[in-house]
Amino acid sequence: MTDIYKQLATFLDHLPAGYPATESGVELRILKRLFSPEEAEAAMTLTMIPEPVAGVAARNGRDATELEKQFAEMADKGLVFRISKRGKTLYSAAQFVIGIWEYHLNSLDEGLVEDVNEYMPALLKQGWLDVKTKQLRVVPVSKSLAAGMAVTPYEAAEAILNAQSKIVVSDCICRKEQKLIGKGCDKPMETCFSFGAAAFYYERNGLGRSIDKAEALEILKSGVEAGLVLQPGNQQKTSNICMCCGCCCGILKNLKTLDRPAMAVHSNYFARVDDAACTGCEACVAGCQMDAIAMEDDIARVDLQRCIGCGLCVIDCPSGAMQIVEKNADDRYVPPKNMLATYIKIAQERGLR
């Protein structure tokens, strides 16, 4: 049975976000926990492009009725992705992150969490550090922006929420998993937004609840007040916003171990200190999720190689000494237009076909 899981691991590794092999084989242990051999085989018949079961069955010599039943069960379990379009149900392969792992929000156990935590650094290196295009980006909290500062709609969380016709909010899987193993923090739990097709999937699978824009904006406000970093998907038309902390978030806590985390994040802003206004209270030091601020001669100093431009230090600062500054035009990042474009870029950067 090991061979089928190696095949599945290879299959997942040939999706844009990757699923690299490790010396310990932890990636295979994870798959054995999640997939039966039959489910592993079925998952490999899919592609990243949603399609009707009939086409998948014909391409793979399978009975369409049996495959439909199997895919439906796998979608319910978070092993494949399912959407409805013009009255038809379509299925596609799910990447491990962002995808299969997040879809197991309601079916975590300690063993699975421990394995995923062991695996995450290897996955982050290949699927994040070794490619230029990331799956997520960082946008500054709106209160950190100076009056009159022009911000494109895809860089303003409020504008992203207001543009949605379907919003589902769910618990943060990172904080939930850390609490399960006796770690984590006391920051808000219900902080992850999904939009569009992803929202319908989350709702149908019982992973979250549908909310209106007013409630979404209130949840956003509460998350910012709790000191959470805003990470929307790396697209101009995004399908999600995560509100993340540096102690639990699988991405941020691993980036935090780097010498230069700012180099591994898409952000168009950075923090700057007005020396004359700084009182040395250290509120910004305590609130920084990337340990990017330190005191020097009782004045806050920002390490630009660590600052990811989230803007939380600005709203934490009681004296108004912290400012969020836009990067130069040559250094500004323009995200791909949609999710497909993002994953095509990642695949190209990984040399996949």
UniProtKB/TrEMBL annotation:
It comes from the Bacteria. Residues 269-297, 298-327 form the 4Fe-4S ferredoxin-type domain. GO terms for molecular function: iron-sulfur cluster binding; metal ion binding. Signal peptide: none annotated. The keyword Metal-binding applies. InterPro entries: 4Fe4S_Fe-S-bd, 4Fe4S_Fe_S_CS. PROSITE patterns: 4FE4S_FER_1, 4FE4S_FER_2. Keywords: Iron, Iron-sulfur, Metal-binding. The keyword Iron-sulfur applies. This is (4Fe-4S)-binding protein.
